[in-house]
Amino acid sequence: MQNNVLILDFGSQYTQLIARRVRELNIFCEIKPYNKVPQDMSVYKAVILSGSPFSVRSEDAPHPDLSQIKGKIPLLGVCYGAQYLAHFHGGLVAPSNTREYGRARLTNIKNDERFFYEITDGTQVWMSHSDTIQKLPEGAVIMASTGDVENAAYRIEGEDTYAIQFHPEVYHTTQGKLILENFLVHIAGLKQSWTPDAFVETTVAALKEKIGDDKVILGLSGGVDSTVAAVLLHKAIGKHLHCIFVNNGLLRKNEFQDVLDQYQHMGLNVKGVDASARFLDALAGVSDPEKKRKIIGKVFIDVFDDESHLVEDAKWLAQGTIYPDVIESVSVTGGPSATIKSHHNVGGLPDFMKLNVVEPLKMLFKDEVRRVGASLHIDDERLGRHPFPGPGLAIRILGDITREKVAILQEVDAIFINGLREWGLYDKVWQAGAMLLPVNSVGVMGDERTYEKCVVLRAVESTDGMTADWVDLPYAFLQKTSNSIINKVPGVNRVVYDISSKPPATIEWE
Ligand code: XMP
């Protein structure tokens, strides 16, 4: 990739957002931790320094060597990046009297035609910092100020080095994307050619070249990533791609057959493997959520291993890994991050894992995977599908799992999800599902007293699942759904709606 931007990450919560904005401009970019500046900078046409939770004045402040970059490649420092370029080049960064958070107006724009091209004087920008640049570095000229921050933007004369104290990547910096475009296109001369169609074309060609006539195995989950990865590979190598779609008995109602039919309709070479009994037998009597996950992970690997042996001479294992899974993160605390839930548990190394790995979506963000999917003509329903956890309904049945409980929850879930679709609410929700609680409650049906199960409906808004809020679904919808569940699903006499945000709650109940 010769038309590339490097984003050096100093640990800011907004680093991925910078990358997303750059990609939205149809320009390719990569994120690297500040302490891993690539040796070979020849592929990069511009560099952006991110913000950071550190202060440049602290002893452990990130301090990479930029001698191969500054003055040689167009460089933009954002927030910490701007302070870094000032502090280590003869300027002065000091604590500001007040922490400067939130909106400000950028005024007195001057001294550069290209960087602030078509930017309005007084435009709103977003600040989030507690240090301030009191004295500019050597060779710097001021480009703009705000009410509280005199040196809000500067550049170094004789270099394509720019620095801004505000965050152009956040939504509240109204013209932030245009500022990034000015820097990347007008100053660094990058081409806006990173489009889904271009990605498909170059990736398919690269996959053909890499894989040749070898056979590839891929596990489909029904989700967006594995589906897009499969269709891309299919375009490159056709029937040499062998897809395996496993029914773990914990999918949504009719999901296995429906999705299998869709995959076959797309022309994929897919084998459906119904291993429900193997999973449900292994889960019998287990209530602990982490144990459930481990068992499901292990049985999945066993089933997949058995199936992969049936594909003779397979050389490659394809995976739908996406960019947020592979970005190396900068540890702000210095320690490893806590494991909240064990999503992947691999014991030993099964044979299929000894294959070469191919990950065609490894450089894409989720929204880009969807755009690539659309360019491959995958239908909107599949691309807009809510996330669904790998262990499926197992982590939505609190307590032990039985076939009867799975059947009850499948019915409840289907009424809820189909209802969301019928009411035009499905696409307004990021994820939705139902949980079966391990408690019975008293009810009355006709003249009879009942003592039956309680289910929870949960619908959340989110962008990445890291934080989430419950969705304010219309009362009329909740009322109809609740009635329908209690009338149609034997064994359930109570429906509740979960109104907790994440944090402190999580999206799933286990
Ligand atoms: P939580 O419950 O942690 O969920 O707020 C965040 C997102 O992750 C999904 N999730 C899982 N996905 N295996 C998965 O593949 C798991 O064990 C698992 N646990 C939670 C959850 O559905 C939500 O989208």
Automatic annotation (TrEMBL):
Q: Which residues bind ATP?
A: S221, G222, G223, V224, D225, S226, T227
User: Which EC number(s) does UniProt give?
Assistant: 6.3.5.2
Keywords for this protein:
ATP-binding, Glutamine amidotransferase, GMP biosynthesis, Ligase, Nucleotide-binding, Purine biosynthesis
A GO molecular function term, named singly, is: GMP synthase (glutamine-hydrolyzing) activity
What's the catalysed reaction? XMP + L-glutamine + ATP + H2O = GMP + L-glutamate + AMP + diphosphate + 2 H(+)
- Respond yes or no to whether keyword DNA damage is given for this record: no
Q: Which superkingdom, per the lineage?
A: Bacteria
> Tell me, what does this protein do in biology?
Catalyzes the synthesis of GMP from XMP.
Name the record gives this protein? GMP synthase [glutamine-hydrolyzing]
This protein's species is Maribacter arenosus
